[in-house]
């Protein structure tokens, strides 16, 4: 979404962000329609002249500061309905400060790609404030809500919060509140339909938790969120909660009881005018939690999800504290000092907690180490911690962490990929290749493990195999920019300037402003001109490389022609026979593909690509096994 996202590297792509959800991420499963977020990332990339974290964090902090200011104004208006204005002003400032320094906010503000939570919350707060200021006399208050929706879907609950604001803060009757909030419901419905239509359908395995177990765990999740609001001591960047094995699990039962108590409390508090702001704040917490509670995601909980609901919880807590009768304390000095002292102690404690969380987020190693301690059953955390240790040269520590991850997630392709890296660093290339191949087998339709394997093949100077793997990876995901860089490197290392030029041109066709591809193209053109290369390729290896490029483009006839030319020059070249099989499979000539792949396997019994071509031809063409091993 950021580091490997080529679209954010050129401001000219901004109009495309609003037209194509695929620009949000190069990973097909992460292609969400969040054009405001992607636009902000492109601007930060431009300001920092590249991936400079300082500019990304400065941008996030700026908008966080804007939101804190708007939260203070919204709290002031809400609290002013039940408190004297002077008291409401003081309480609003204290409440906004509490929200600003709460450690839970650090989970969103430090998590750059989750700035969508910040923008969505900012849009809703701004829309409510604009409505409250003008009492809905114009429709301009809907604009920030739409911006929030284009940042992240949780902002879609804005009309519900607007209705509750009218009902609980402005004390309108339900029918009147519904009529006044109807435009917001209509605009939000249109926006929801538009956003849904812009999200592409992704084929392949789903990583989402089934609806039943997911929703069943949410009451307990909300109970934990409330606990973290009052005592944020167990924040984790990547939790390890799993669905309950039984609905009678004590934690599940406690969650249901909490949810019932929360709903009852909202209703009871609403009956007394002076307590309605507390009721509204609690209702905000509940309603803002619905999008991530009712629609299954890949994880049951995530601490950055607290950000939006905690605005309401902070308002409820602030209103409750403001109603404490400190003025009835007999001693004048104590009456003046106690509330200020308690407020300062609370804010100082929370600020210290935020400082500590910022230290956790400082590096990848410190972040994932904290996650493994807070969420020890999280296999992904141990995987990423192992990667972080490996990047700093701690091979033994990385191996230990990855072996723990392998126990927790025995079929996770990333574990196998990083184990390949570890064994490579330890000098055991046979074991490294075994892990790389298993990573590819576990996730054959993902570009990442295949690219990692190809990068290893490049280091082993097994160039034709590497280029073939990279070509296959790009068939699954043409937008994998790092895979394209590796492909260009492979062609350059092979000395195939025509292939290098073609790979650069294909990259520029997808990403017109890519500086790496532009530099490669200039270099390839210069070297071809210097060598007097008119684009003809006469060596068997050069023709095999041509077949890979033709296969990548789906030009199967040309692919077959190049492969046969390579075989004519070098009949014993196994990769030529294998690539002929790949091309025949592409044309669905499965019998011919099987014959070519079997010849490749005869020439090179360990050629894994030929085995895969045989398996594919047999599966697709139902060709009987003729005994190839």
Mean pLDDT: 90
Domain module count: 3
Count every beta strand, where a strand is a DSSP E run of 2 or more residues: 0
Describe the global form.
Answer: elongated
| Quaternary organisation | single chain
Order of helices and strands: HHHHHHHHHHHHHHHHHHHHHHHHHHHHH
**Major sheet description:** none
Distance between the termini: 42 Å
Helix/strand/pairing class, anyone?
mainly alpha
The radius of gyration is: 29 Å
- Spans of at least 5 consecutive residues whose pLDDT stays below 50 are 533-537, 623-629
Strand content: under 5%
Helix share, percent: over 70%
Number of discrete helical segments:
29
How would you sum up this structure, described in words?
The structure is a single chain. By secondary structure, the protein is mostly helical. It folds into three domains: 1-51; 52-200 and 208-357, no CATH class; 538-629, Alpha Horseshoe (Serine Threonine Protein Phosphatase 5, Tetratricopeptide repeat). 70% of the residues lie in helices and 0% in strands. It has 29 helices and no strands. The chain has helices spanning 14-17, 35-47, 53-79, 85-101, 103-109, 115-134, 142-149, 158-169, 174-198, 211-230, 250-270, 276-294, 307-322, 332-360, 364-374, 379-391, 395-408, 413-425, 429-442, 447-459, 463-476, 481-494, 497-510, 515-531, 540-552, 556-569, 574-586, 590-603, 608-621. α23 (497-510) runs parallel beside α25 (540-552). The model is unreliable at 533-537 and 623-629 (pLDDT under 50).
């Amino acid at each position: 979404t950021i580091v490997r996202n080529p679209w954010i590297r050129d401001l000219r792509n901004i109009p495309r962000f609003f037209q194509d959800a695929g620009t949000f991420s190069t990973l097909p499963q992460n292609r969400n329609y969040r054009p405001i977020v992607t636009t902000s990332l492109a601007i930060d990339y431009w300001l920092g002249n590249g991936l400079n974290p300082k500019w990304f964090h400065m941008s996030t902090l700026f908008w966080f500061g804007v939101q804190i200011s708007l939260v203070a104004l919204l709290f002031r208006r809400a609290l002013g309905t039940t408190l004297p204005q002077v008291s409401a002003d003081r309480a609003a400032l204290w409440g906004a400060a509490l929200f600003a320094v709460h450690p839970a906010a650090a989970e969103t503000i430090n998590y750059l790609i989750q700035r969508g939570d910040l923008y969505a919350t900012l849009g809703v707060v701004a829309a409510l404030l604009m409505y409250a200021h003008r009492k809905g006399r114009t429709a301009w208050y809907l604009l920030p809500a739409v911006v929030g929706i284009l940042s992240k879907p949780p902002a879609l609950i804005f009309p519900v919060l607007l209705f509750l604001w009218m009902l609980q803060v402005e004390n309108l009757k339900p029918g009147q509140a519904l009529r006044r909030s109807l435009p917001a419901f209509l605009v939000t419905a249109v926006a929801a339909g538009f956003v849904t239509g812009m999200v592409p359908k992704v084929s392949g395995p789903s990583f989402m938790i089934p609806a039943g177990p997911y929703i069943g765990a949410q009451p307990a999740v909300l109970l934990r969120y409330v606990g973290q609001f009052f005592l944020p001591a167990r924040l984790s960047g990547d939790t390890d909660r799993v669905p309950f094995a039984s609905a009678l699990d004590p934690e599940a039962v406690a969650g249901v009881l909490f949810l019932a108590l929360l709903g009852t409390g909202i209703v009871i508090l609403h009956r007394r005018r002076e307590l309605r702001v507390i009721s509204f704040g609690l209702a905000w917490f509940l309603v803002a939690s619905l999008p991530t509670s009712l629609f299954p995601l890949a994880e049951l909980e995530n601490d950055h999800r607290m950000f939006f609901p905690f605005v309401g919880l902070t308002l409820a807590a602030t209103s409750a504290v403001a109603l404490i009768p400190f003025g009835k304390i007999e001693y004048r000095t104590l009456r003046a000092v106690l509330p200020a002292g308690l407020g300062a102690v609370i804010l100082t404690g929370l600020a210290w907690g935020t400082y500590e969380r910022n230290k956790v987020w400082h590096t990848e190693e410190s972040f994932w180490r904290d996650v493994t301690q807070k969420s020890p059953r999280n296999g992904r955390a141990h995987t990423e911690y192992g990667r972080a240790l490996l990047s700093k040269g701690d091979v033994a520590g990385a191996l230990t962490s990855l072996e723990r991850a392998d126990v927790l997630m025995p079929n996770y392709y990333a574990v196998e990929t990083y184990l390949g890296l570890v064994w490579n660093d330890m000098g055991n290339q046979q074991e490294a290749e075994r892990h790389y191949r298993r990573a590819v087998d576990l996730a054959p339709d993902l570009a990442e493990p295949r690219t990692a394997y190809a990068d290893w093949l490049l280091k082993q100077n097994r160039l034709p195999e590497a280029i073939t793997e990279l070509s296959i990876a790009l068939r699954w995901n043409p937008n994998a920019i790092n895979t394209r860089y590796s492909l260009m490197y492979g062609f350059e290392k092979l000395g195939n300037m025509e292939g290098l030029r073609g790979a650069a041109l294909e990259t520029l066709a997808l990403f017109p402003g890519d500086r790496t591809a532009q530099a490669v193209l200039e270099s390839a053109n210069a070297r071809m001109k210097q060598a007097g290369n008119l684009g003809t390729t006469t060596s068997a290896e050069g023709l095999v490389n041509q077949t890979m490029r033709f296969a990548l483009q789906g030009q199967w006839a040309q692919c077959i022609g190049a492969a046969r030319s390579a075989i004519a020059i070098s009949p014993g070249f196994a990769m030529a026979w294998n690539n002929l099989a790949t091309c025949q499979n592409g044309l669905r000539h499965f019998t011919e593909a099987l014959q070519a792949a079997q010849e490749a396997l005869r020439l090179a019994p360990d050629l894994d690509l030929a085995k895969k071509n045989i398996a594919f031809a047999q599966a697709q063409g139902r060709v009987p096994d003729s005994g190839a091993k």
